[in-house]
Amino acid sequence: MATGIWISLVIYFLIMVAIGLYSWRKSTSSSEEYVLGGRNLSPGVAALSAGASDMSGWLLLGLPGALYASGLVEAWIGIGLFVGALVNWIVVAPRLREQTERYDNALTIPGFLANRFPSHSGTLRMVSAVVIVVFFAVYTASGLVGGGKLVQSAFDGGYQTGVWLTLGVVLVYTVLGGFLAVSLTDFVQGCIMMLALVIMPLVVLFSGQGGGFDQAGETLATVDPNFLSLTEGLTLLGWLSAVTWGLGYFGQPHIIVRFMAVRSVEAVATARNIGMTWMGISLLGAIGVGVFGRAYAVRNGLEVNDPETIFIVLADLLFHPLVTGFLFAALLAAIMSTVSSQLLVSSSSLSEDFYRIVVDRDPSEREVVNIGRIAVVAVGIVAAFIARDPESQVLGLVSNAWAGFGAAFGPLVILSLTWSRMTGAGAVAGLVTGAAVVIAWIALGWNASFLGGAGIYEIIPGFILAGLAIVGVSLVTEPGTGFRPREQS
């Protein structure tokens, strides 16, 4: 492997560790600092942190791979995500920022739900913690799969080596610096990811062997006359299963926790504008990598055994080693930003919503921070075990975990922020229903084939039934008195 690639990667790793050390000295003296960075993120850091922790290796591996294999019709996933993210910033972000602080300064989503519905606080904390740890173990595994594939494809190394190397670097800065480290590294990683996704499709399209727009279209027409069609062959169920990915945003703890940490409610609008601009550019770039990458591969007789590695293959072929190292760092950035966020949310749920409630109701702040650090390592090891199969598909693992969170927490978060009649019993019913329906749908294989027909993405029945459970149970149960919120100064 060329020296230039290693130089770029070593520089990237050192920057991540340096940020971890800075954050360790700056913001880990209390659980609020370790879990939420003291609620003092700037709009830019909050926006790119939310975006980078959201997109993950899916943006550079899963989405380009899907487009490479099936054509532009797969772009509906990105369209649904963009709309869902925008609504999330408008509806959830300002309300969650204000209400989590007002309801006894809740540091986690389970903590907010417990304070919002005190009559069922213990149940909500425990069930939420279980759902978060279970689905995040799977979600984190998808990121480690991406790291394994990078080392295997780009460096001719072992898949397991890639899994453990990715996890090791993430653990260093996450354990050291907590939420501030994760957010600052996300900001850097988000900038790297967007720049890579602007550079890659342009170079692929206009390099000497790329052919430009016209030749790319002609080449893709020989693969499939409908390769560049958004609608050809698209069924209603297929379209719904793609665009309803956007429903998942309302229930992703590692994303909406950024809303809780932005420095003020007034700063949310600025963060939204920055975040949506970043997301739009990055999604267009990922679509370009998949579509133009397929045209390049066909024109040049390039064999790509795993479509999800097209970004890696093109980076290795078309660029100077120093630039290739930068592009590989972008891929690692996408992976690590999400893995670190998920590990931190899992650990905060275990330390704040399990340890404080079950093990020690009056621990010191230092004790809670250390328990959180231990939990980060424990969840990471479980995720590495799940990611042990090199045949795992990044998009498949992400879709399952995304649906689980979206159905379990999505209706719950939206209604708890906007509907005063909602009850604690309704909250528990929605949480359990959403998670159970998603798990059952996957176990029965109905996401692949529903009653002999086309499969239905599990988030659709999970989200709908969870919402109905919340409304139905809330209407037949008495509202609790509610936690007395802080007085506003």
TrEMBL record:
GO biological process per UniProt: proline transport
PROSITE patterns reported for this sequence: NA_SOLUT_SYMP_2, NA_SOLUT_SYMP_3
UniProt GO cellular component terms: plasma membrane
Topology term for the membrane: Multi-pass membrane protein
InterPro entries attached to this UniProt entry: Na/Glc_symporter_sf (IPR038377), Na/Pro_symporter (IPR011851), Na/solute_symporter (IPR001734), Na/solute_symporter_CS (IPR018212), Sodium:Solute_Symporter (IPR050277)
Molecular function terms, GO-annotated: L-proline transmembrane transporter activity; proline:sodium symporter activity; sodium ion binding
Catalytic reaction equation(s): L-proline(in) + Na(+)(in) = L-proline(out) + Na(+)(out)
Alphabetical keyword list: Amino-acid transport, Cell inner membrane, Cell membrane, Ion transport, Membrane, Sodium, Sodium transport, Symport, Transmembrane, Transmembrane helix, Transport
Bilayer-spanning residue ranges: 6-24, 75-93, 123-142, 162-184, 191-213, 233-252, 273-297, 309-335, 371-388, 394-417, 424-444, 456-476
Protein's UniProt keywords contain Isomerase: no
Subcellular localization(s) per the UniProt record: Cell inner membrane; Cell membrane
CDD domains: SLC5sbd_PutP
Family the UniProt entry places it in: Belongs to the sodium:solute symporter (SSF) (TC 2.A.21) family.
Descriptive protein name: Sodium/proline symporter
Provenance organism: Palleronia sediminis
